[in-house]
Amino acid sequence: MALWGELGNSLLEMSDKTKDNDPPTPEEMQKTLKDLFSKMGGGASMPFGSIFGDDDEKEDKTEDAPVEVNPADTIFDFNLKPREVKAHLDRFVIRQDEAKKALSIAVCDHYNNAKQLRALEEEGDDAEKLEYQKQNVIVVGPTGVGKTYLVKHIAEMIGVPFVKADATKFSETGYVGGDVDDLVRELVRKADGDVELAEYGIIYIDEIDKLASKGGGSFGKDVSGRGVQTTLLKLMEETEVALRNPMDMKGQMMAMMDMKSGKKTQKENINTRNILFIVSGAFSGLEKIVSKRVQSSQIGFQVEERTEVLDSELFKHVETQDFIDFGFEAEFVGRLPVRVVCEKLEKKDFVNIMKFSEGSILRQYEREFEAYGIRAQFEDTAIEKVAELSEKENTGARALMTVLADMLRDFKFELPGTSVSELKINSELIENKNEFIAKFKEEGEQIELTKARSEVDVFVQKFMAKHGIQMEFTDEAILSLSTQSAEQGRSVLQICGSKFKDYQFGLKLIQRNSGKDSFTITEEAVKDADKFLSDMVVISYDSIKKEEESTE
Questions:
Q1: Residue 39 phi/psi, 5° resolution?
Q2: Where are the beta strands (DSSP E) in 292-446?
Q3: Helix 147-158 and helix 82-90: axis angle, to 10°?
Q4: I want to staple 379 with a disulfide (CB 3.0 to 4.6 A). Which of 39, 131, 426, 490 is the partner?
């Protein structure tokens, strides 16, 4: 409200200037409004030029404008078959064949219908006569089995905008949480402002089971859950959503400015008729409802009640009433005619995900090690072990990241910067990782020491050739140089050149005093080269003094 007051004050000031026969210039008005919108988050993105009638905006540039292809037109060339869509999904998601089939069919039917509607409209026929029930989808399945991945890759394959949200973030009115209408507006943003393309997008809502208002093992949402269901009902069927949120002050101000300037570049509303809705959730407790009903309907005597896992077999018995008993409104369930289950992943599924999925997390780890100059190779014994541990995590494919992060964390920390260039990851390495890390560190130190020694030899030879003075470095000195090299990211040769670049003056002085031709460089010299040389010079003079005293 303070911003509106600020705008009012600014306009009053302009009005006062007008009374004084000094009307504000367009530049002054533009600056005032631009500053206001900058504070509101609009910045310079407001179309000020069009509002104030800039000549550049009025210039007719249509003659040389290139012909643009409307992205929405690609939807009306849709010719994919369900088998082709499933084959595409097989590249990224392991198992879940029934879910892939159901989604592939629903998507193909949905966009083929959109294509037919468009053809009828272009021919001037009454498109309303074409009967079609939108095949919105409800996916049931535990976390991490690939539900989001399936929908995301379908949208990418078709070329339509895709929006994902969690049902728990929305409220009936939008005052608390989010406004469900914003999902539709988000499609427009994903479509780069193309409203027509957005009207054929896909909206995916996860954790839809959290909107259940009662029963079925859910935590029991209050009436707000039912209110969100009711709001989603209109979106999933067909309704008009305002392009700008009525509660968005900046959006409404922009709309007002557009209207004042006569600008009419796009539709004011988004129609949801051709937007495909896919919802999903774990539906913990639904299996009890279905199992209880199935068992009670069986003929005969049931000695012990069994609770089944909601797999494909039990899901065949799921009825609309089961979802209603779980806590959903009948009308809401009715808007989701396509129902499919994603089954819990088992050890063999984790193995296949790692070995055959194009999005395998093993490729990610190989790239991460490669960035440190290490070639990581996952052997089958390691893959089996990772799959076994991931199954116990009970979080689906997400468990792979958890297990691998814990398993390889120490290797990522200790090996980069060492001489290790190849890492074979197998069950033996996993089960004895501490021993392997210690071994790698020891081998790395030995190799680094050998490398450091060779660089020191090069320095010694150059020093001898240039100054005629022989230097010998102790093993401790070479090890210290190697350590500094790793810490500073410089070669041992560079460090020697820096530390001992003026040593010839002091050593020649010592050579003259003592007659020495060779000098031993210890670890102390590497740590403090100046002090070490200074002490050696003092000792050489002390020895001369003692000799003189002894001869007297």
A1: -65, -30
A2: 338-341, 375-378, 422-425
A3: 120
A4: 426
Cβ 147 vs Cβ 103: under 8 Å: no
Q: Which two tokens stand for residue 196?
A: 């027509």
CA 422/CA 434 separation, integer angstroms? 17
Mean pLDDT of 210-225: 58
**pLDDT, tens digit, for every residue of 64-119?**
555 555 666 666 778 889 999 999 999 888 888 888 999 999 999 998 888 888 87
Find, among 38, 54, 57, the residue nearest to 46 by Cα.
38
d(CA 397, CA 347): 11
- Give yes or no for a contact between 460 and 473, defined as CB atoms under 8 angstroms apart: yes
pTM of the model: 0.63
* Locus of tokens 């102390």: 524
Phi, psi of 134 (to 5 degrees): -60, 135
Residues 342, 96: Cα–Cα separation, whole Å: 6
pLDDT at 176 over 50: no
Q: Is residue 537 within 8 Å of 503, Cβ to Cβ?
A: no
Pairing of strands 269-271, 240-242: antiparallel
Cα 155 from Cα 462, distance rounded (Å): 65
For range 436-463, the mean pLDDT? 81
| pLDDT value of residue 460 | 93
The token pair that represents 487 in the structure block: 């810490």
Share of the chain above pLDDT 70, in %: 72
